[in-house]
Structure formats: C-alpha cells, structure tokens
TrEMBL record, chain A:
Cofactor(s) this protein requires: [3Fe-4S] cluster
Entry superkingdom: Bacteria
Keyword Calcium (UniProt): no
Protein name (Swiss-Prot/TrEMBL): Ferredoxin
Claim: Metal-binding is one of the keywords in the record: yes
Keyword tags: 3Fe-4S, Electron transport, Iron, Iron-sulfur, Metal-binding, Transport
Matches recorded under InterPro entries: Fe-S_cluster_ET
Species annotation: Nocardioides turkmenicus
GO molecular function list: 3 iron, 4 sulfur cluster binding; metal ion binding
From TrEMBL, chain B:
Sequence intervals crossing the membrane: none
Designated name of the protein: Oxidoreductase
Domain FAD/NAD(P)-binding: 8-301
GO molecular function, one term: oxidoreductase activity, acting on NAD(P)H
GO CC annotation: cytoplasm
Protein source organism: Nocardioides turkmenicus
Record's keyword terms, sorted: FAD, Flavoprotein, Oxidoreductase
Lineage: Bacteria, Bacillati, Actinomycetota, Actinomycetes, Propionibacteriales
Source species, domain of life: Bacteria
Record has Flavoprotein as a keyword: yes
C-alpha cells in the first residue's frame, strides 16, 4: 500500500492529476487539489504514479 | 522473423512529448529496446518553468528534469544527449544522426519547435529567444543586469517574460505587431482582461508596432527603433514571436508536412503518412491543428508511444493551458476563439456555442475552470463512445 501526499502550498490547480486519475484527485472549490483517497493499492499504483509524475509543479508524492 | 521483444523504438526529441512517448509505449507493453535522442546535453526536462520559476526565483536555477534517474532506469530507456538528427529514410527505417545511423522498427517524431528569430537581431549580445534551458539561463542573467527590456510579441511567452522582468523591477515595453494581442489564443474580451494585467503591473504595451531597426555597440544592443518612429532604449531584447516546427531533418523523407502550419501531418492516432512513424508535441499537426501546449504535448506523446506499441488509441484531450502573469493565475480551457464570448464575474470569461459552454478563460478563478474542464472531458468521452 502506498500513500499520496499533496502539498497545497505548491499546488497551482492545473489539474493534470485529476485528468489522469479522477478517482484519486479532484480540484476543489478553493482551486487546489483534494486527495479523494490517499491510500493506493498495488493494483492502481502504476497509473497513480503516472498522474503524480505529471504534476508540472511537483506538488504530489507517492510514499511507500 | 525478428521476435517482438527485439524490436527497437526510436524517439527523436527528448522533451515532454518524447518522454511521454517512451512511457506510453512501455505502458502499452512494448518490451523491446527504446532509445530517446535529444540535441541538448540535458536529461529530458520540462519547459514551462523556463519562462516562470527559472527567471524569477532567487535560488540558482537547476534543470527542471521531468523524471528522476530511478524512474528513467525503470523505463529501461537509452538516452542519447547532444545528438543532432540530419535525415530520415523511411524505406530503410533509419535516422541519420551526428552519432551515426540509428535503425528503428517504430519511430516517434517529437522534435518540437524552434523559436522564430528576426534577421538583424539574432546573435547580438543582449538579444534572446526563450525555448531551451540554456536560453532561460541567458535571459535570467541578462534581466539581472538590465534596467530596460523590450519584448517583441505579446503572446504567452512574451507576457511571462514581461512578468518576470517586472518582478525584478525592470522597465518593460512589449511591442506587438497585430492590433489585438492573443488573437490566436482567446477572444477579444478575455484578451482585454489579460492585457489589463500588464497595464496594472506597469508594463507598456504597443500594438500595431514592429521593429524597424536596432542600435548596438560593442556591449550589445542599446536601443530598438520602431515602425512608429519611436526609439526605445534597451539593454535586453527578448523575442516571443512564435515558433516553427523543427522539421528540416525530414526534408526528402516520405513524412508529409502540413502546407499551412509546416507541422508533421498526423491523424488522431498520431500516425504520419509514413508506415511505422508517429509524431507528437509541438512538431505535430493533428487534423490541421498544431496545439502548442504542455498538456497536448504530453497526451499526444503518450498516445503516439502507445500506438507505436500497437494500442490503437486516439488523441482527444480537452485543450488546456495555464500561465502566471504578475502573480495572477491564468487558465484557458476548451474552445476560446471562435465561440460567443460572455464575461462573468470572478475573473471568468466563458465561451458558448448554441448556448452550451465550450470553453473559458479564468484569471485567478481555478475552481470554475476545473468544473468546466471536468464537464468538457466527460462530453469528449461520450462523443468518442
């Protein structure tokens, strides 16, 4: 099991994460990322990793 | 017959589209060797920070790499830096390069574009374009030593550089040839609001104006002469007047180019006119359109790589771009040129067709933009089904 960490002070609300994994990420009413589910099972790790890597301001991390 | 896992995927161009092509191919099960060739000495890096953080941050800039060494290792991709491509033979499936001939079974063209220059200005100390990391270092260095900068072109790159210069308290004049800036990107009302951000920040914008001459000394550029007769003192000049697809190496190959845009002709699967050859990013002209945005380059790269590996995907992403000017966050989503334009509150301009929202430009308005982008993406999926 891996865990998503989001840094809202870095997030610019660009939404690449949501475009690729909308069951894990959504841009909220404050215009910043909300993590809908922080824990990522092994089966989803690949595409969540891709969504995290696609963040142009490096606001997301996958730990574990 | 060569076994499937011996097949070689060659990606020419080591920017975002090229890197995503590698990831797309691996994701779609390509298990043969992959080589990515770039003409710069750096590992694959990200361009948006070049006109933003790299110019404004007080910290010493570092190459904004797209992936860590570990991730690149996991992808099992061979990166050849500092290699220039000279030609393509689609019959022999060979790319001629400064490091010798490279054969391929599948090829992704992701050579991007080259910043447009003006004869008479290019090569003069203090005159810059901004496309590559090394350009960004030069612009940063030049801005740090400047009191007055002239920027040619009021598009997104020019505006971001203007913003970086104002943040350093440099006097800025933007010179724009057309009567209305951002014509290719957004409608007149959104353009008016965006241009207003420059005025608030103390940027002088001259429209319907071109450069007629330049004055220089041993130190470099001293002043820019304008079509209006005015002369602007300047110690830095930056050109933000567009970019041409980097296709010179394709001359004489079977890869067809679009007559209007000069980009590599592609269908929605990113396939070119030559068998075994796909294209993605700024160099690609997909169904008549070159979408020179980060989001499109990444998605086109992924689709081209996946299709090179046999996936059969189509490129259908909702257009999306972002920028930061003078501390204001700008976001552009969907269709924002030909549709009816309606100004709303909260920094939002919405575009409508037959009463339906098809796009928007937001200034510090990320939540409504995110909602519209979500809705448009859902429609795209429905339309493709």
């Amino acid at each position: 099991m891996s865990v998503i960490q989001a840094d809202k002070t870095v997030c610019e609300g660009i939404g690449m994460c949501e475009a690729q994994a909308d069951n894990y990420f959504q841009i909220g009413d404050d215009g910043l990322v909300d993590v809908l589910a922080a824990e990522v099972p092994e089966s989803d790790r690949g595409y969540v990793r891709a969504a995290i890597d696609s963040c142009p301001v490096s606001a997301l991390r996958l730990e574990g | 017959m060569s076994s499937f896992h011996d097949r070689h995927l060659l990606v020419v161009g080591a920017g975002l589209a090229g890197l995503r092509a590698v990831e797309g191919a691996r994701g779609a099960g390509w298990d043969g060797p992959i080589t990515i060739v770039g003409d710069e000495p750096h590992p694959p890096y990200d361009r948006p920070p070049l006109s933003k953080a790299a110019l404004t941050s007080d910290e010493e800039p570092v190459v904004p790499v797209l992936r860590s060494c570990e991730v690149l290792e996991d992808l099992q991709v061979r990166h050849l830096p500092g290699v220039r491509v000279h030609g393509l033979d689609t019959e022999r499936r060979t790319v001629t390069t400064s490091a010798g001939d490279l054969g391929y079974d599948a090829l992704v063209i992701a050579t991007g574009s080259t910043a447009t220059t003006l004869s008479g200005l290019t090569g003069l100390p203090g005159v810059h374009v901004l496309r590559r990391y090394d350009d960004a270092l030069a612009v940063r260095d030049s801005l740090a030593r400047s009191r007055r900068v002239v920027i040619l072109g009021a598009g997104f790159i020019g505006s971001e550089i203007a913003s970086a210069a104002r943040a350093r308290d440099v006097e800025v004049t933007v010179v724009e040839a057309s009567s209305r800036p951002l014509k290719r990107a957004v409608g007149p009302r959104a353009a008016g609001r965006l241009v207003g951000l420059h005025a608030e920040a103390g940027v002088r914008l001259l429209t319907r104006t071109t450069v007629s001459g330049v004055r220089s000394s041993d130190r470099g550029v001293d002043a820019v002469e304008l079509s209006t007769g005015e002369t602007l003192t300047a110690d830095t000049v930056v050109l933000g007047i567009g970019a041409q697809p980097a296709t010179a190496w394709l001359a004489g190959s079977n890869v067809a180019l679009d007559a209007r845009t000069g980009g590599v002709l592609c269908d929605r699967t990113l396939a070119t006119s030559a068998p075994g050859v796909w294209a993605a990013g700024d160099v690609a002209c997909v169904e008549g359109e070159r979408r020179e945005h980060w989001t499109a380059a990444g998605e086109q790269g992924r689709v081209a790589g996946a299709n090179a590996a046999g996936a059969g995907e189509v490129f259908a992403a909702v257009p999306f771009a972002w920028s930061t000017w003078h501390g204001h966050r700008i976001q552009v989503v969907g269709e924002t040129t030909a549709a009816d334009e309606e100004e709303r509150g909260d920094g939002l301009v919405v575009y409508l067709r037959d009463g339906r929202e098809v796009g928007a430009v937001g200034i510090d308005s990320p939540a409504p933009i995110a909602r519209l982008r979500r809705a448009l993406a859902a429609q795209h999926v429905t339309a493709d089904a």
